[in-house]
Design a protein that fits this description.
Elements lengths: L1 H14 L8 H36 L58 H4 L4 E3 L8 H10 L19 E7 L6 E8 L3 H17 L2 E4 L2 E10 L5 E7 L3 E8 L2 E8 L6 H21 L4
Antiparallel strand pairs: 1-2, 2-3, 3-8, 4-5, 5-6, 6-7, 7-8
Length: 288
């Protein structure tokens, strides 16, 4: 039986390809190297774990040559208190919000009481109802800009968004008598109203003479500063006196249309009417 096994092993070895086996010393060397690699890997893993555990303590100040720092317990985290929403909370414990006192802007609404009365012009005068379809000096200054005489500067201020910040009133006494067109506009500030005064004055100065087809008009500033905070009295040919006056943030304009060229008496009347207009504005608004 043993001889049969020996023959089978000899036959098995004969069938294998020729191989060169390592010597016993080389095999032992390979095993020693594998053991060293395995031990080094375990040592490196231990070092990493040690650094992770001790890293915090070293960062707190433990350096080479210094005594090991004493580990202390981490800070205790306390949950933030929640505000109570119960209606039974005492009102005295609630903070009282404080805010600066609001500054009330000028009320740009122009009431009817701020307009001239018919009696302010004369005993025979009345307020004309309906829409006014007459002319305006702005038609002429618009032609002046189209002709390139004036660039429109300084510009007009932005008007107030309030619907009732503008009023117009026409006072008449008959077809052969002088009639007055009053326009009053409220602005958010006196500065804005002053910008409109500056705009209109520049137009009269730059458009002193306007010739355009059938239109021939001359503007002449004949008086200033006679009413309100600012005032202009302008002669507009051929038969008109224009009064522009500012009372605080309110701008008022009076157009006096005469049946013939106005004289010195008419000029004095226009100045007096401007003072009455300012008095009405100041009595009915907070502009003054």
């Amino acid at each position: 039986m043993r001889d049969d096994i020996s023959q089978q092993l000899d036959g098995f070895g004969a069938d294998l390809p020729a191989m060169t086996w390592a010597s016993p010393e080389e095999i032992r060397g390979r095993g020693e190297r594998r053991r060293r690699v395995r031990v080094a890997g375990m040592t490196a893993a231990g070092v990493v774990a040690t650094v992770l555990v001790a890293g915090t303590a070293f960062a707190l100040g433990g350096g080479p040559g210094e005594p090991d720092p004493t580990l202390t317990a981490g800070p205790t985290i306390t949950a933030a208190p929640q505000l109570s929403t119960s209606p039974s909370a005492s009102p005295s414990t609630r903070p009282t919000p404080t805010s600066p006192s609001p500054v009330a802007p000028f009320d740009t609404v122009i009431p009817s009481a701020a307009m001239l009365r018919a009696a302010d012009v004369g005993p025979a005068y009345r307020v004309q109802s309906g829409e006014y379809l007459g002319e305006s000096h702005r038609y002429v200054t618009g032609l002046c800009q189209e002709k390139g005489q004036w660039d429109g500067k300084p510009g007009r201020p932005q008007s107030s968004p309030e619907r009732d910040s503008f009023r117009r009133r026409v006072l008449v006494a008959g077809s052969n008598a002088m009639h007055v067109v009053q326009e009053v506009t409220g602005y958010p500030s006196a500065r804005s109203a002053g910008e409109l005064m500056a705009h209109e004055r520049a137009g009269f100065e730059r458009c002193a003479v306007v010739d355009h087809r059938e239109t021939h008009v001359e503007f002449e500033i004949i008086a200033t500063g006679f009413a309100g905070d600012e005032a202009l009295l302008v002669r507009m040919t051929p038969r008109t006196l224009l009064v522009l006056v500012r009372a605080g943030a309110v701008y008022a304009e009076l157009s006096l249309w005469f049946p013939s060229a106005p004289d010195a008496e008419d000029v004095a009347f226009a100045r007096d009417l401007a003072e009455k207009a300012v008095a009405r504005i100041c009595a009915a608004t907070t502009a003054c």
